[in-house]
Write a structure and sequence with these properties.
Elements (H helix, E strand, L loop, with lengths): L4 E8 L2 E4 L5 E4 L2 E8 L4 H12 L6 E6 L7 E4 L2 H10 L5 E8 L6 E3 L63 E3 L7 H5 L16 E2 L2 H15 L3 E6 L3 E6 L7 E6 L6 E7 L17 H14 L5 H12 L5 H16 L2 H6 L1 H11 L4 E6 L5 E7 L1 H10 L3 E8 L7 E8 L5 E9 L4 H14 L7 E4 L3 H10 L4 E4 L1 H11 L6 H16 L3 H14 L1 H8 L25 H10 L4 H23 L8 H11 L6 E6 L2 E5 L3 E5 L4 E2 L3 H5 L4 H9 L14 H7 L69
Parallel strand pairs: 1-7, 17-20, 20-21
Antiparallel strand pairs: 1-4, 2-3, 5-6, 5-7, 8-9, 10-14, 11-12, 12-13, 13-14, 15-16, 16-19, 17-18, 18-19, 22-23, 23-24, 24-25
Helix pairs in contact: 5-7, 6-7, 10-22, 11-12, 14-15, 15-16, 17-18
Length: 764
């Protein structure tokens, strides 16, 4: 299978220049194009680049920018990095690559003191300070902004409150030698070299204290020094070198009548040994978040362990797992928005849903302390489609959310004419309780003013059973076989092998699908021969709510409530987002689903939907050996392997296949052919292409400005919604799987006595 291809524009020999906004521009040099794909190895790519520019592989490094970010260069050093670069540029045809060589460079004149990596100091170049900073020995590290590595001798300027404003202190010109060889540590620090000039000297101004701290931190990382705060508040920051006895100092304070922060005093002399600092205290959580932001946009599943490796490789800083995890959490919140603020936006969000999608329902409730309790959403397109084109059949199920404040998603889904999941309504609640299920069903009832009796397929838990009977009188509740099976296996006592349990489950499902009493009883007798306990359990589990032979409603052979797997997969993709964004993701998925299915159905030329057309053809193929006998009126006898009676007027066959599926069985089709009618005239209207198109005839509309805060003049501004008190517990979240899954766990089997329930070491 061919991999993704991209054209790399390899550039060499030019120089980077910093723009006003901090972005880097590449000037001059040569450029060549190379075709690569995700199957190419990094060494192959590097050799081809080296051959193209006639340079040495050992002194060459390859870098690139993330799409949309011209401030941070990313180094490619192995196959994984190369593949990641191709993925980052997946939407582009080309990618710019910058080839750099680690050679001796000419000496250059700089007004900045030498970096720590050059191991030089500028004691002779520092202007004496008339009023030195008052630094005390009993200095305590700042808790908000931890120690950061710095490596730069700095000049000193007196605070403007103590010196004449006309006095100007200038730095002498310094020749800064460049090392002839580059260590492994310095190779790792290449990504941080762009920060070497984030602090340029005395008089430099910043928009605020936060900007100054960030510049200081980046400057420290680039020059590999650690510092600690002596003073650190909203209008002044005083910092000294962390190495004991080192005179390096910097002081910045607010310019009077402004919010600007200006560097006032600087002592650029370092007398410490200057050991390279690479431990994680150099990097705050906010700094880690700013570094990984762009990658996290492209790879939402960016793992903390990968963050640790990438930061070490690019910046030479060793983080621990918790620092990487916290940085990722901050970056996610900056990208996705605050979880707490999302709850506060719920009034505005619900208002927008009903404004942009007239006829939709969006409502929420809070507890007495204003904390979030429940949210219900149902779009007009879904309600209209269910009433016009779907069978009166609803599936109720839930999925646990893994967001910061946990919660549970309730969903009511239906089956469209092609027997595919159709979203009707959903709700986010603080916990799965009987009271919340009752509230959810009340909302469903209010949005579906239908006189048709509805069949529900759901768990048989007490709260659901009572709520369905109370809120939807005359409707039917079919128990979900999956939940029944899980409960049966849990309640069974005694030693049963995995194979025996599998046979019991097969007989149980056969009993549930059996259309007639006789076949149902045969299956139960088979279970009884294995376990009387299992037989009694099933008899007491109300077969009239799960067995086709007794069920009075129309569930169309849908026996489990997890029919809406597609819907739950959407929730699984978005359940870690803030609540408003999670709902917005689901809304977008529903909007896309309606458009896609409506468009696809326009190509259909059959009278029934494709899946129903296929089922009807399979039944029609069974007609040939059947013999039809007229017994009087509209009742017919059909002989084949069995003798069945068909009532053509009441759409009834004694095999029960017609009633259970809504499509004529082979016996009915044989009779229909004898009387010169078309089988299509005896199919449920819900299975026609016309009905399917009516189901998806309405559209779900976008919701603009979903993240906009509520305006002051809004009528809902007085409604306050705070996060629920529940918080995500420590440890890995549990996963609730949907769809077919093995409900019988394998038991231990002894290799010595072949018994079950123990192994060889515990065999007696």
């Amino acid at each position: 299978m061919a991999g993704r291809k991209i054209i790399t524009i390899c550039q060499w020999g030019g120089e980077f220049e910093a723009d006003k906004d901090g972005s880097l521009l590449y000037r001059g040099g040569d450029a060549h194009a190379i075709d690569i794909d995700d199957q190419m190895k990094f060494n192959e790519f590097k050799m081809e680049v080296a051959e193209m520019f006639n340079c040495s592989i050992s002194t060459m490094s390859i870098k690139y920018f993330l799409p949309g970010n011209r401030k941070t260069l990313i180094t490619i050093s192995n196959d994984k990095d190369l593949k990641r670069m191709i993925k980052f540029h997946g939407d582009s045809v080309t990618a710019d690559i910058y080839v750099m060589t680690e050679e001796i460079v000419p000496l250059e004149v700089s007004n900045m003191p030498a970096s720590r990596s050059s191991r030089t100091t500028l004691s002779e170049a520092v202007v004496p300070v008339d009023a030195p900073l008052d630094m005390k020995d009993d200095m305590v590290d700042d808790t908000t902004y931890p120690d950061v590595s710095l490596g730069l001798p700095l000049d000193v300027v007196d605070d403007t409150t103590h010196v004449d404003v006309d006095t100007q202190i200038t730095m002498p010109t310094v020749i800064s030698p460049v090392p002839l060889s580059i260590s492994n540590e310095e190779k790792h620090m290449k990504a941080a070299q762009q920060w070497q000039n984030t602090i340029t000297g005395v008089g430099q101004r910043f928009s605020g204290v936060h900007e100054f701290r960030e510049a200081l931190r980046k400057f420290a990382i680039a020059h590999q020094f650690a510092f600690r705060y002596k003073k650190n508040d909203s209008h002044r920051v005083t910092v000294k070198c962390k190495a004991e006895g080192c005179p390096w100092r910097i002081h910045a304070s607010r310019l009077s009548t402004t919010q600007l922060i200006c560097i006032k005093k600087m002592n650029a002399n370092h007398t410490c040994e200057g050991a390279v600092v690479t431990t994680g205290y150099q990097a705050t959580r906010s700094w880690v978040a700013s570094i990984i932001m762009e990658k996290l946009k492209v790879f939402p599943n960016y793992k903390p362990k990968d963050i640790v490796n990438d930061i070490k490789q690019e910046y030479g800083i060793q983080l621990n797992y918790f620092q990487a995890w916290r940085g990722k959490e901050i970056a996610k919140e900056q990208l996705q928005g605050s979880y707490k603020e999302a709850y506060g936006q719920l009034p505005f969000f619900c208002e927008k849903i009903m404004e942009t999608n007239p006829g939709s329902f969006a409502t929420f409730t809070t507890k007495e302390d204003s904390s979030f309790h429940r949210l219900f959403v149902s779009f007009h397109a879904s309600l209209y489609g269910f009433q016009q084109g779907c069978r009166p059949l609803l599936f109720l199920d839930s999925i646990s959310l893994k967001s910061k404040y946990q919660g549970t998603l309730f969903a009511a889904t239906a089956a469209d004419g092609d027997d595919i999941v159709f979203p009707v309504a959903f709700s986010v609640v603080d916990a799965e309780t009987d009271d919340n299920w009752h509230w959810f069903l009340l909302q469903v009832k209010s949005t579906l003013p239908t006189s048709r009796p509805i069949t529900f397929v759901a768990d048989r838990k007490k709260g659901l059973r009572e709520s369905i009977a109370e809120i939807f009188p005359g409707s039917f509740h079919g128990y979900c076989l999956r939940y029944l099976t899980e409960q049966l296996m849990k309640d069974l006592k005694g030693q049963f092998s995995h194979e025996v349990k599998r046979l019991m489950v097969e007989d149980f499902f056969a009993a549930a699908y059996a259309p007639r009493h006789e076949s149902f009883q045969r299956c139960l007798e088979s279970i009884k021969s294995i376990s009387l306990e299992a037989y009694n359990w099933l008899i007491q589990s109300e077969p009239m709510n799960w067995a086709n032979a007794f069920f009075q409603g129309a569930r169309y052979n849908h026996m489990t409530s997890n029919f809406g797997e597609l819907f739950y997969s959407w929730a699984s993709e978005a359940h870690e987002l803030p609540i408003t964004q999670m709902v917005e993701v689901i809304r977008g998925k529903i909007m896309e689903l309606f458009y896609t299915r409506r468009t696809n159905s326009l190509q259909w030329i059959t009278r029934l939907t494709p899946s129903m057309e296929e089922k009807l053809e399979k039944e029609s193929a069974k007609v040939r050996p059947l013999q039809v006998l007229l017994s009087g009126g509209n009742t017919f006898e059909v002989r084949g392997d069995t003798i069945e009676v068909v009532d053509i007027d009441h759409w009834d066959c004694s095999c029960k296949g017609w009633q259970l599926t809504g499509l004529p069985c082979c016996h009915a089709i044989a009779v229909i052919g004898c009387i010169g009618r078309s089988p299509y005239d005896y199919c449920s209207r819900y299975f026609t292409t016309e009905s399917y198109r009516l189901t998806y005839s309405e559209s779900v509309h976008p919701i603009p400005n979903v993240d906009r805060p509520m305006e002051k003049d809004s009528s809902l501004v007085t409604v306050t919604v705070t996060p629920p008190p529940t918080r995500r517990p420590p440890g890995r979240p549990t996963t609730k799987r949907f769809g077919s899954q093995e409900v019988v766990k394998r038991q231990l089997q002894c290799s010595r006595c072949k018994g079950v329930g123990h192994n060889k070491s515990t065999c007696k």
